[in-house]
């Protein structure tokens, strides 16, 4: 329910490494799709903002993430970015993590869809069609950890042993320590977004993926809180006595099944029975593994799109890294950031332009005119440059 002007300002971060190859292609494809869908009644006003290595060139040596960039991204609400180099040394662990934390981007959204003709290890890859809602602010990924042998780790261990009487496992003072916080609020806002997405998009099920059989008070609680939220806010009722639930989609009148699966079993399920799964809601670490595993089933990280969302801000992004070996050579696959832009257009409600991008991209793949990462796995394909792939999509 964004209110979108006819010429929205969209900040973009070109990104480092292959960002220079893929981001300009993305802009050309988006401009062409918007023109095709709306003539000149709508147009994106691109605004370059800086982060990563390019920011250090523009703003000076230590400025990896300028305040102006954070401001633009939160003020204009919707933005898009290429991959960023992680600074070595210094206080920043990762620019992506910093962005997420600063803007409270608690959802990492990764749609997994198969484009006909893409190389896949599966016999029937077209059965894979899922949307992953990965919690992005909590869990063992929160970055609360201490190296083995540090005074912090040692005093924590002493506290756990002496005061909390933790003795049941091997727990030497030389252990490194990481903390896994999972809260009811954090779980609820993620699961709420996933269920709402299923409602808005007429999806038949939402699956909570967790390791609650082992980690009862974090991952187990995630499952319990997820079901409770569905009951309280969406009127879900137990299905055949539970624990699975069913809720009615108020838009379509159809049922949405809310189920849960243990994470390790789920990784088998996505290979064996991908058609049984649809919208996925999961914790941070599980979501990381699952996103990449599923991306590999449908063509790999070169064409897997993603977005990081808060309640107000959305940053759409290439999910791959900077791939320095092929950077600047017009070889990288722009598919990931192009499909992220497609998600961005849907987020704006510009579905006709988003549809045009999907048609263009699947057409280019079916014609076998793709970048090298895909071409070398497709027997009849012809390898083309990043920019040529962009032109094929537009054509
Ligand atoms: P970083 O250190 O930023 O993560 P990386 O090289 O590890 O950089 P990844 O995204 O992790 O980048 O990718 C691993 C490898 O996959 C790359 O080295 C590259 O060979 C390939 N790759 C990733 N993205 C693309 C792409 N868009 N097009 C072609 N190949 C890609
Ligand atoms: Mg990498």
Molecular structure report:
By secondary structure, this protein is α/β, with parallel strands linked by helices. Helix content is 41%, strand content 18%. The chain is built from 13 helices and 16 strands. A twelve-stranded mixed sheet has the order 2-1-3-14-13-4-5-12-8-11-10-9, sandwiched between helices. It has a two-stranded antiparallel ribbon with strand order 6-7. The protein has a two-stranded parallel ribbon with strand order 15-16. Helix 10 packs antiparallel against helix 11 and helix 11 (351-366) packs across helix 13 (386-394). The two termini are 32 Å apart. The mean pLDDT is 94. The protein binds adenosine-5'-triphosphate (ATP) and magnesium ion. The site of adenosine-5'-triphosphate has 14 residues, from loops.
Can you tag this structure with a few keywords?
twelve-stranded mixed sheet; binds magnesium ion; two-stranded antiparallel ribbon; 13 helices; 18% strand; 395 residues; binds adenosine-5'-triphosphate; alpha/beta
Q: What profile does the largest beta sheet have? A: 12 strands, mixed
The structure class reads: alpha/beta
pLDDT averaged residue by residue: 94
| Rg (CA only) | 22 Å
Widest sheet, order of strands: 2-1-3-14-13-4-5-12-8-11-10-9
Distance between the termini: 32 Å
**Assembly state (oligomeric):** single chain
Low-pLDDT ranges = none
Strand content is: 15-25%
Q: Helices and strands, in N-to-C order?
A: EHEHHEHEEEHEHEHEEEHEHEEHHEHEH
Helix content: 40-55%
Keywords: Glyoxylate bypass, Magnesium, Manganese, Metal-binding, NADP, Oxidoreductase, Tricarboxylic acid cycle
Catalytic activity: D-threo-isocitrate + NADP(+) = 2-oxoglutarate + CO2 + NADPH
Subunit structure: Homodimer.
Family: Belongs to the isocitrate and isopropylmalate dehydrogenases family.
């Amino acid at each position: 329910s964004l209110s979108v002007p006819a010429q929205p300002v969209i900040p973009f971060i070109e990104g480092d490494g292959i960002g220079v190859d893929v981001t300009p292609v993305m802009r050309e494809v988006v401009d062409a799709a918007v023109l095709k869908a709306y003539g000149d009644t709508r147009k994106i006003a691109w605004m370059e903002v800086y982060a990563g290595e390019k920011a250090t060139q523009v703003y000076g040596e230590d400025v990896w993430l300028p305040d102006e960039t954070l401001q633009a991204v939160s003020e204009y609400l919707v933005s898009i970015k290429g991959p960023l180099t992680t600074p070595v040394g210094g206080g920043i662990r990762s620019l992506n993590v910093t962005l997420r934390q600063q803007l409270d981007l608690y959802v990492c959204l990764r749609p997994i869809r198969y484009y006909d003709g893409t190389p896949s290890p599966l016999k029937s890859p077209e059965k894979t069609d899922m949307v992953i809602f990965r919690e992005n602010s909590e869990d063992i990924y929160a970055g609360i950890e201490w190296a083995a042998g540090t005074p912090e780790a040692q005093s924590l261990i002493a506290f756990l042993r002496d005061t909390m009487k933790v003795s049941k496992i091997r727990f030497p003072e030389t252990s490194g320590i990481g903390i896994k916080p999972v809260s009811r609020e954090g779980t609820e806002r993620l699961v709420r977004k996933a269920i709402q997405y299923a409602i808005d998009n007429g999806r038949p099920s939402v699956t909570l993926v967790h390791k609650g059989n082992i980690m009862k008070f974090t991952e187990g609680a995630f499952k319990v809180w997820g079901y409770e939220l569905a009951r309280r806010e969406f009127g879900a009722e137990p299905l055949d006595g539970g624990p699975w639930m069913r809720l009615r989609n108020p838009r379509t009148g159809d049922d949405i099944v809310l189920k849960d699966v243990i994470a390790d079993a789920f990784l088998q399920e996505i290979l064996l029975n991908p058609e049984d799964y649809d919208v996925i809601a999961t914790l941070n670490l599980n979501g990381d593994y699952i996103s990449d595993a599923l991306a590999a089933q449908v063509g790999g990280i070169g064409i897997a799109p993603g977005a990081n969302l808060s309640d107000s801000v959305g940053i759409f992004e290439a999910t791959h890294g900077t791939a320095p070996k092929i950077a600047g050579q017009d070889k990288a696959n722009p598919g990931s950031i192009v499909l992220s832009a497609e998600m961005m257009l849907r987020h704006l409600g510009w579905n006709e332009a988003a549809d045009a991008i999907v048609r263009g991209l699947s057409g280019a793949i079916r014609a076998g005119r793709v970048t090298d990462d895909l071409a070398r796995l497709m027997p009849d394909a012809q390898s083309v440059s990043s920019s040529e792939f962009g032109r094929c999509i537009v054509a």
